[in-house]
Amino acid sequence: MKIWKLASVAMKDGPSLIAADDILTAAVVKATSHDELSIDTESALFIYRNVRSNSSSLKPLVSAISSRVKRTRSWAVALKGLMLMHGFFLCKTTAAESIGRLPFDLSDFGEGNSRMSKSGGFNLFVRAYFAFLDRRSILFHDGNRHRYDEESSVMIRLVIIRKMQVIVDSLIRIKPIGEIMKMDLINEAMENVISEILEIYGWICRRIAEVLPNVHSKIGKTQADLALKIVTKSVSQGEELKKYFEFCRDLGVSNAKDIPDFVRIPEADVIHLDQLVRTEETENHQGEATETEIDLCEEEERETKSEFVCDLITLDDDDQEQPVSSPPKVDIPDLISF
């Protein structure tokens, strides 16, 4: 069976390798092969080394990856393409911030498959991974316009923190479902997800600690209201993250073995924010983020939840033998400490 699968992979990837114009395009084909059991790490590392030494190569590489995943029906090719794109961010490639919205759309990947298809869980995984990566790429591209720094107004900093919380929400929607998905390729993708969560959620926690002391009666009700939403969200998100880490640890994801410690936001700070929200609204400072931007954050969060619910319903219909399993509920504090 293994020999037959290897032969099948060679037949599917062979024409693309022959048609490759250069060594980088060939590396993309190898790194996004049809092999569902493994990933060509050497080709991926070669691509990342090339981008670090020559940032101008990123654009043709992104184009090659996009061309590869746009015309595939293989979940393995689509997932490897997403992982390869994600690697540009994880490797701290500065040029990756210029990508913006991904040049391909996998939001409906595999939706035309038969209801009895065993690839339902894999297709859902690909769609969830794409939803996260597309949002992340857009946000970090927009970050060039509204960058978080000490000179940013309190409101801008709050809006960026809130948007980052939405990114974390999209990350924890990425979950393999059922025994059939317990394989090395999925685990490697989950390691990327855990690495991203640790970095982004750690950033959120540090920024909350920095900005909360600056939230006071003089900045206005709108800012206080957003700060309260951020703190409230951090509580529920911390609980979800603890369960998610336990799920990943049980799955065997290597960097989820040690569940981070969590610390609680002082209750006095929460009460203080609630009191500020109840006061009369004062004028916003000129040049600060508007309520429209806050509404966009909330809309993105609703869209993330809506997409996840719809996908679960679709998966239920597609494959009755692979029910959605949820880890046990555990009450935990809300912020991660490093």
TrEMBL record:
Pfam families cross-referenced by the UniProt entry = ANTH
InterPro entries in the cross-refs? ANTH_dom, ANTH_dom_sf, ANTH_N_plant, AP180-like, ENTH, ENTH_VHS
Q: Which UniProt keywords apply?
A: Coated pit, Cytoplasmic vesicle, Endocytosis, Golgi apparatus, Membrane
Indicate whether Protein biosynthesis appears among the record's keywords: no
| Domain ENTH positions | 16-147
Spell out the Gene3D superfamilies in the cross-references.
1.25.40.90, ANTH domain
Q: Where, per UniProt, does this protein localize?
A: Cytoplasmic vesicle, Clathrin-coated vesicle; Golgi apparatus; Membrane, Clathrin-coated pit
GO CC annotation terms, alphabetical: clathrin-coated pit; clathrin-coated vesicle; Golgi apparatus
GO BP, one annotated term:
clathrin-dependent endocytosis
Region: Disordered, residue numbers = 316-338
Entry keyword Phosphoprotein: no
GO MF entries: 1-phosphatidylinositol binding; clathrin heavy chain binding; phosphatidylinositol-4,5-bisphosphate binding; SNARE binding
CDD domains xref list? ANTH_N_AP180_plant
This one is known as ENTH domain-containing protein
**UniProt organism field:** Arabis alpina (Alpine rock-cress)
Q: Lineage of the native species?
A: Eukaryota, Viridiplantae, Streptophyta, Embryophyta, Tracheophyta
